[in-house]
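## retry 2 of 3
previous attempt timed out at serialization; input unchanged, resubmitting
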Amino acid sequence: MTTAYNRIAGQSVERLAALSDGIFAFAMTLLVLDLRVPAMEAVHNEHDLWHGLAALSPRLVMYMMTFMTLGIFWLGQQTQLNHLERSNIRLSWIHIAFLFFVTITPFSTALLAEFTGYRIALVAYWFNLLGLGLALYVSWGCATRSGLVKDDIAPEVPAAVCRRIVIAQSLYAFGALLCVASTHWSIAFIVLVQLYYALAPRIAK
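## retry succeeded, writing output
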C-alpha cells in the first residue's frame, strides 16, 4: 500500500508552484519587519531623523540584498517547474526542503544585519544560500533522471540550469571567503552578484 501511495502522491506541479509562491511571498514580506522607524523620543529635529535613518542603512542593505536573493531563487525554481510535465513524491519533498531554506532566510538576514561585523553571522547567511542552491540543483537532477521534464524541452536547457546554479554558488562561496579579510567585503560582493543576476539576465547564464 505504501508503494502504491508513493506512486500517486505529489504529482501536481501546479500545487507545488502555488505552495512555493505563498511561502516566497510571506518570506519576502517578513524581511521588511526588521526595518523599524527611529524611536520618536530620540528624534527632536531633522538632523536627528536623518541620523536615525542613516543608522538603518545596514539593515536596509540586508533587506535589499535578500529581497533580490529570494527573487532570483524564485525565478530559478519557477524555471524548473515550468519545464516539468509532472512531479513525484521525491521531487515534491526536495522542493519542500528548498522552501525550508526560504523560510529561514528572514532569520539569517536579521542575524547578519544585527552582527554585520561577525564572520559567524556571514557564514550562517552563506549556508542559507548554499542550502537554497543545493536544493535546486538536486531537484533538477531528480527531475531529469526520473523523466519528469517535458518532452519538448530544448537540449541545451538541462545543462544551462545546472551551469547557472553552479556558477552562482561558486560566486557566493567566494564572497563568503572574503569574510576572512572583512565581512563588509563579503556583503558588498554578494550584493554585486545579486545585482548582476537581477539586472543582467541575458549575460548571467
